[in-house]
Amino acid sequence: MWLTLLLLLALGTLALALVAHRLLAPSGNPFAQPPLEPPRPLVTDPGARDKVLKQGFSTRRVPPVLDAVVIGSGIGGLAAAGTLAKVGKRVLVLEQHDQAGGCCHSFQEQGCEFDVGIHYVGQMHAGSMLRVALDQLTDGQLCWQRLPDPYDEVTLGPRCYQLRAGKTAFVAALEEQFPEEKAAIREFMRLSKVASRHVALLAVLKMVPRCLATLLVRTGLIYWISPVFRMATTSHSEAVARLTDNRDLRALLCYFFYGTAPEDSSFLVNVLMVHHYQRGAWYPRGGASEVAFHIVPLIERAGGAVLVRAPVTRILVSPDGAAMGVAVQKGPSEEEVEIFAPIVISNAGVFNTFGKLLPPPLRSHPEVSSRLAMVRHGMGSFLVFVGLRGSAAELRLPPTNFWIYPHNDLDTMMTQYAALSRDDVPENLAMMFITFPAAKDPTYEQRHPGRSCMTILTMARYEWFEEWAGTRAKHRGAQYQQYKMSIAQRLLERALQRFPHLCDKVEFVEAASPLTNQHYLAAPRGEMYGAEHDVARFSPAVVAAMRADTPVKNLYLTGKGPASPMSPAPMLPLQWGCPPKVVAMSHGAVPRAGRVQLRAGRGPAWGAHLRLHRPGPPALRGPAAPQEEDQEAPGPASGVTGTVPGSMNPWVLLSWAWLLIWGWDGDRDEVGWRWR
Fold first, then answer.
1. What is the chain's alpha carbon radius of gyration, rounded to the nearest angstrom?
2. CA distances to 47, 133, 326, 396, 442 from 285, in Å
3. DSSP assignment of 375-387
4. Which of 357, 412, 492, 522 is 20 to 30 A from 553 (CA-CA)?
5. pTM (2 decimals)?
């Protein structure tokens, strides 16, 4: 028996070695070399940036041959498209907003620039997993500014606590502030290390064959594989109560708020969030829009495109139930454009994808319905954008992020806050987050001289604003504006209590409610982080079910659909949710599309087609496009051709197994492999 086990182990090791060589060898892997070109000077010209980020949709800009179409240009959609573009696949990304980036976009108002989603990112030190991935997707052009200590300050009633960067300094700072809790702090750090090393198993559970995942979950064997699954299904409040009786320390170990009370949230998620910033915090030089600004050219060089003002109205499905493209309609009076592609990847979230974009018969499909029943809408957010007169240096703005709570009982606070009636909200605001982007980015003064900004964030229920749902953005009426600004003014007053020297520097105030998120981010109920991040969502059964591939053939999810959109680098494969077939395509396993037909009525087959028809019943089609617009596709891409049967690529599974055996740790000084 032992001889047989040793033989199997030897064969497995050999197989993993062959997989590692295939995937990581410089000759066949486009990710094996670091970016060759050093970062270029920051592009500040608005026109030049708009050419990249604001390419409006038109039929002439749709590439003639597509390997895939991606719905949504958030980081999940751009990462999936960029990964395919690295190996020459032609991808079309469609964004309903007027600029690409999703939560990575920024906007300008009265001479100030504001970011809507990226406030700071951890694990961006040289050689880290997250840094390597973003360097590859941006050709090494995205630069990061490290924030000085303390990067975070947490206020719990009258007491303030600071967090400092560095593995040793992080622990030392906590122990200095909680000298009697050294044992609890060290045990928490040990658990965070375990979580960091083992969290990739959640991604593997999404990628293994469903029958194997079901077996592991139903028999309970999954809990014997790794403690990370117990951590995922344990309430944070329950876990920290075992560690310490100190209520301030309990609150400090879950100070990141995302709409879920600690008693309802997963200990794994919170411990990873804290672990994510142990090495410090970074901010993109040039602002959040730099992320999309440097990924889009990568997609375009491969023959793809990222087009905005392109709301996808439905996913096209063939008679045999396979996704074969999307329909885009810019307005009710404009023509609808049908774009065909062999693969559809949705970054629009599970609620939009399954509940709105699929044809009605498929929405009621048992497997689709069961997935939707596993998750529920998360809480919305409320942001206040404050324009300040004077530079960050003149106003002595700190780069530190400030988390402010009225007391240390976060469970009670969240429960009472969520139960408030609409009229009671302005006078009973609970938590708030304050950040100064102008102080984090050394290029801000160059781009916006004499100006700076402050952003304030809190959580908000969609129900508080539901009365005005369905109204147009910026035309919601005086009552909505009055209610929104009453909340904004209360938050601003609290912020100015913390920074009184800014009272006479405020030039303007603007606010964004859950309805704003609904409009600009297509969040169904204004959620900032997608589906609710409660303990139930991270149970093994839900993790295994909410995978990238869907019950609809050739339709895949990315971003916050198949997994958590939280930022820890160890959750990178979960966060971006790159479908197994997309990974397979990146290694040449899926054939390139053939021809493009710009005339109505042609079948999709393997070719990418574009068809226009005017609004109306499905049987009513518009006039056929001119025959002379047919274009010949370029020759096939180099690499392996032929398909991998089924949605699970065995090479992907083996590569993940190799990665886990090697050891996944997003907080390492370098990733498990070095550049060849």
1. 25
2. 19, 17, 35, 19, 7
3. --B--EEEEEEEE
4. 522
5. 0.84
Q: State yes or no: cis peptide before 38, omega within 30 of 0.
A: no
Cα gap 565→465, rounded to integer Å: 24
Please list, in sequence order, all residues whose beta carbon lies within 8 angstroms of the beta carbon of residue 499, skipping any fewer than 6 positions away: 434, 454
Residue range 211-223, pLDDT digits in tens: 989 999 999 999 9
Provide φ and ψ at 482, rounded to 5°.
-65, -45
**Residue 27: what pLDDT?**
57
Nearest to 479 by CA among 419, 423, 528, 524: 423
Q: Tell me, what's the pLDDT at 663?
A: 42
Distance CA 347, CA 558 (A): 5
For the segment 523-544, the average pLDDT, to the nearest whole number, is 90
Q: Are 142 and 284 in contact (CB under 8 A)?
A: yes
**Residues 6 or more apart from 265 whose CB is under 8 A from it?**
235, 236, 254, 533, 534, 535
Q: Which pair of structure tokens corresponds to residue 19?
A: 């997989």
φ/ψ of residue 554, rounded to 5: 70, 10
CA distances (Å), 88 to each of 24, 91, 294, 297, 302, in order? Answer: 17, 9, 17, 13, 5
Nearest to 523 by CA among 350, 344, 265, 363: 350
Judged by DSSP in three states, 433 sits in: strand
Rounded Cα distance between 623 and 28, Å, is 45
Single-letter amino acid, residue 69: V
The pLDDT tens digits for 574-613 are 333 444 444 444 443 333 443 333 333 333 333 344 544 4
- Quick one: tokens of 528? 């900032």
SS (H, E, C) 96-130: CCCCCCHHHCEEEECCEEEECCCCCEECCCCCCHH
For position 16, what pLDDT does the model report? 63
Cα angle, residue 513 at apex, residues 511 and 516 outer, rounded to 5°? 95
pLDDT at 478 over 60: yes
494-503: Cβ within 8 A, 24+ apart: 494/404, 494/429, 494/432, 495/384, 495/386, 495/432, 495/434, 495/454, 495/456, 498/402, 498/404, 498/434, 499/434, 499/454, 501/395, 501/396, 502/388, 502/395, 502/454
First-to-last alpha carbon distance for the chain, in angstroms, is 39
Report the amino acid identity of residue 115.
D
Bigger pLDDT: 383 or 530? 383
Q: Phi/psi of residue 345, each to 5°?
A: -120, 125
Cα separation, 531 vs 517, in Å, equals: 14
Q: Encoding tokens for residue 214?
A: 């079901």
| Three-state SS sequence of 570-635 | HHHHHHHCCCHHHHHHHCCCCCCCCCEECCCCCCCCCCEEEEEECCCCCCCCCCCCCHHHCECCCC
> Where are the alpha helices (H) located in 25-121, listed in sequence order?
46-53, 75-86
For 40, the token pair is: 């270029």
Pair 272, 570: CB distance under 8 Å: yes
User: Three-state DSSP class for 557?
Assistant: strand
Closest to 274 measured CA to CA, from 304, 239, 301, 309: 239
**Alpha helix locations (H) across 121-209?**
129-137, 167-177, 182-198, 200-207
Q: Which residue has the higher pLDDT, 640 or 269?
A: 269
DSSP 501-547: GGGGGEEEEEEE-HHHHHHHS--TT-BSSSB--BGGGGSHHHHHHS-
